[in-house]
Amino acid sequence: MLEIKPISAFNDNYIWLLRQTGGVSAAVVDPGDAAPVIQHLCREGLWLEAILITHKHGDHVGGVRELKRAWPEVVVYGPAGEPIPAVEQALSGGQRITLNGVGAEFLVLDVPGHTEGHIAYYGQDSLFCGDTLFAAGCGRVFSGTHKQLHHSLQLIAALPPETLIYCAHEYTLDNLGFAAWVEPDNPALVQRRQDAEEMRAKNNPTVPSRLDLELLTNPFLRSSEPVVIAAAERYTGGRLQTPDAVFTAIRSWKDREYD
Ligand code: ZN
Ligand code: FE
After folding, report:
1. Domain count, the chain
2. Alpha-carbon span 131 to 253, nearest angstrom
3. What is the mean pLDDT of residues 35-61?
4. 11 alpha carbon – ligand 2 mean position (Å)
5. Domain span at 33
6. pLDDT tens for residues 186-230?
7. Cα 142 to middle of ligand 1, angstroms
8. Rounded to the nearest whole angstrom, what is the distance from the C-alpha of residue 239 to the centroid of ligand 1?
9. At 180, phi and psi to the nearest 5?
10. pLDDT at residue 116 in the model
11. How far apart are CA 164 and CA 167, in angstroms?
12. Tell me, what CATH number does 107's domain have?
């Protein structure tokens, strides 16, 4: 069975570690820092087979060089559309990769928007999506466009509802606070906030989350919902004609007034 565990890094990053139960081969997703990964792998007696990178930002790639020094045979996968010197297998949407030792197979999805060439890895009912979709939120638009990010989120929204969303940051409580600005009366959101507060009080991660919960509570997946449209129009003070425009308004609202 595939086991997926978070390794905490920096303040709020999760580096996801993949292995078969009882196996010695491991893969990590977005190792922004090498030290906690090396420490974890050595403690568990694991061998690093693969590194999967979602995008170019330092908090996702900063540890790659040092991990490659420690495990020279490791294969480094990453997006073809971004300048990441350490990437050996450059991937774009539609390609598949097989990690033999880890026993996992992934389909690569193009999910630009946070950055211009961001990719995600989908397989075993799990999605590793970096800074594209967060629990109850989404990444900021840095080097992509709002339209791209919205399109990428809609691509993710169309995956099977039981898909587990492994994002790269513990931003959930903060995101839920903004989600409640958009939809204060959404009962699923009120419940989710309570649940997330309990999890964090016990110092447990709130990630992964399930896609069906995101569809009910994440404002950035809900730009066709009348309540969300109305909230976005209250913010902009004018009619918003398309889901793209609603999404852009909600994302800008969070950037300017909440974060
Ligand atoms: Zn990022
Ligand atoms: Fe990040």
Report:
1. 1
2. 18
3. 98
4. 11
5. 2-258
6. 999 999 999 999 999 999 999 999 999 999 999 999 999 999 999
7. 8
8. 31
9. -70, -25
10. 98
11. 9
12. 3.60.15.10
What integer is the mean pLDDT of 1-14? 98
Looking at residue 243, its pLDDT comes to 98
Strand 47-52, strand 25-29: pairing:
parallel
**Tokens 């909230």 belong to which residue?**
231
Q: Which helix (H) or strand (E) holds 115?
A: none
Model-level pTM greater than 0.90?
yes
What is the pLDDT at residue 123? 98
pLDDT at 101: 96
Give the distance (Å) from ligand 1 centre to CA of residue 64: 15
**Residues in Cβ contact with 109 at an 8 Å cutoff, skipping those fewer than 6 apart:** 93, 119, 120, 121, 122, 127, 152, 155, 156
Its sign, for the CA torsion 87, 159, 129, 119, is positive
Per-residue pLDDT, averaged over 91-111, amounts to 98
Amino acid at position 198, single letter: E
Rounded distance, CA 224 to CA 186, Å? Answer: 15
